[in-house]
Write a structure and sequence with these properties.
Elements lengths: L4 H4 L3 E5 L3 H11 L5 E5 L2 H11 L3 E5 L7 H11 L5 E5 L4 H10 L3 E4 L4 H29 L2
């Protein structure tokens, strides 16, 4: 099942990365496909932005100042266990990957990020949220009968 452009426009994304040369182009690319794209430059700001905006998807780097991406993801998952989170990292370390799996990360992308791969992964993660939303609508319809 492929999501249509109007389906994607309902969702918001939070991107967390301390490298502006990655953060700015990602925001620029994704803002054309999604309702809103929020950004943060470290894990602390990312968690604050998550609380303030409740995005539908988070894309985060691992190694950042103040709070790393895995610690931030763990805090986010404690509040919203179903929220899809994508980790992007230049590091292909087994311990980081295993921790990401334990936290419940949706996908793990290696940097440099290939745009086609990014869209595929983002759509895959959003698709689950889309189906959950459709199921919730159907459940509400059944309850109101």
């Amino acid at each position: 099942m492929k999501l249509e452009r109007e389906d994607l426009k309902k969702y918001t994304i939070l991107i967390v990365d301390d490298e502006t040369e990655i953060l700015d182009p990602l925001k620029s690319i994704l803002k054309h496909k999604f309702k809103d794209v929020y950004t943060a430059s470290n894990g602390e700001e990312g968690f604050e932005s998550f609380v303030a905006h409740t995005p539908d998807l988070v894309i985060t780097d691992i190694r950042m100042p103040k709070m790393n991406g895995l610690d931030m993801a763990e805090k986010i998952k404690a509040k919203d266990p179903l929220l899809p989170i994508i980790i992007s990292s230049a590091f292909n370390e087994t311990d980081l990957l295993l921790r990401a799996i334990d936290i419940g990360i949706c996908q793990y992308l290696l940097k440099p990020i290939e745009i086609d791969k990014l869209f595929t992964v983002v759509e895959h993660c959003i698709k689950h949220k889309f189906l959950e939303d459709k199921l919730e609508v159907k459940n509400q319809e059944l309850k109101s009968r």
